[in-house]
Amino acid sequence: MSDGFEERLKTLLAAPPAGPADGDFVARVNRRIVRIRRLRTAAHALAVGGLGALALLGTPAAMQAAESVNLLAGVLIDALEPLVVSPVGYVLGLLAAAAAVLHAVTD
Amino acid sequence: MPIEPFERETALVVLAMRGDDAAFAELVSLRQRLLRGLLRRWCGDAALADDLAQEAFVQAWRKLRHLEAPGAFGGWLRQIALNVWLAHARRRKLTLEALADDQPHGDGAASSQPEAGIDLERALDRLSSGERLCVVLSYAEGMSHAEIARAVGLPLGTVKSHVARGMTKLRVLLGNA
User: How far apart are CA B89 and CA B87, in angstroms?
Assistant: First the structure.
């Protein structure tokens, strides 16, 4: 339960205390802010540089990968092409279709 | 027409929110007396209070863009300072517990005899760190004992004991025994 002394203490504590004020304190805070700004700028430059380097190095690698996929697809097409355009391919295709129909009917 | 201090401060806050460092420096200049005084009252150590005040201003600068109402800068800054002090107190938790029976570190450390006309700051100087912390949080910041225990990381029983002992000392020191 709150008594007279507690109320008095609250009133005393509510009064704003007057601390010191000097330019040196302001300068110290400013120096810390300037330091943080410099670090932020450096980190930003590092991030942008990193992304740039990644883009420069990464683009040829990505293109090479795409070319490899393209090349693989070309090799597959080249391998299948004779089958598709030759009579052997038609015969094989007909046999495969017939086998599929047969399988479906007997199932 | 002269600009009222509150309006001037609000204008400075708006400028600082837009990245004007000179405006923020002026805010530091305007607010340092109160903030350093508050922290001195809270922690009872002038050098530590200045370090914590510096940290509070730097944190305020970092978070300024999140301030919703520029007119509420004063209360917002005080809350940041309180959080900085509480974070420091949490780091010193073991010391605060150990200091249950420690010696006060203020100017009047040598005596605990009542003195006529002793002021609040000198009376607070004669409490231990733990007692001072808990009494100030309880009576200046209106925090419950459970809130103090959570905020500082001390056991509830320790907080209650710090408050009770601190109040007993203050009653004697401020002449209300």
Answer: 5
